[in-house]
Give the backbone structure.
Amino acid sequence: MVDIIEGYETEEQQVDAIKGWWKENGNTLMIAAVVGLAGLWGWRFYNDSLLSGQEEASQAYSDMLVKFESKDAAAGLDDIKAFVADNQDNNYGVLAALLLAKEAVQQKDFALAKTQFVQLQSQNEYAPLDNIINLRLARVEAQLGENQQALGTLALITEPSFLAKANQVKGGVYVQMGDTENARAAFQNAVNASQGNVGPLLQLQFDDLATVADKTVAAPILETEK
C-alpha cells in the first residue's frame, strides 16, 4: 500500500486514496483470491478423493482375497470376476485380473485366461507388466492351439530380461507346429539370452529336440561350455 498513499499528506487523503484504489481494484482482487482458494481447495479435495479411492480399492481387494481363500477355487472365481468388473480403472483391478487368469489356467479354463490377458493388454498402464502379460498370454494361446497368435504375441516382448523365456516359449510353439528348424533356433536364442543360467527344462527341451527330431545334429552349445 505504500505506493498508493505516497504523495498524500493527511490521513484523510490517504484513506480516500485507499478507498479509491480499492474501488477500482477490489473486485479483481476478490475474484483472484476466490479463484486461488478454490483451486487450492479443489486440488486438496482431488488428492483426498484420490487417496480415499485408493484406500477403498485396497481394502476391497483385501476383502476379496479373504473371500476367495475361504471358498473352493471354482466358486471363488466369481468373486474375482466381480472385483475385476468393478475396478477396471485402477491398479487393483489389474492385480485381480492377473489372479483370475492364473486361477483360470490352474483350472484349465484357458479361454477365460485368454480373455483376461487380452483385456489386460489394453487396460494396464504400468509398462513393466506388459512383458509378463504378453508372455503368459502367449502360453495360453499355445495351450489353445493358437500357434500363430502365440508367435505374434511373443514378438511384442523386447525387454532383454524376458527374451530367454520368450524364446523358450517360442521354441515350444514351433515344436508343437512340427517346425524343428525354427524350434532349434528359438531354443538357441533362449540359451544365448540366458547368459549361462540355463534352466533344467530348457536343457531338457534341447536334448529332446536333438534326440527325437534330428539325431545327427548336436544340441546347441551352452554359454558355460564355450
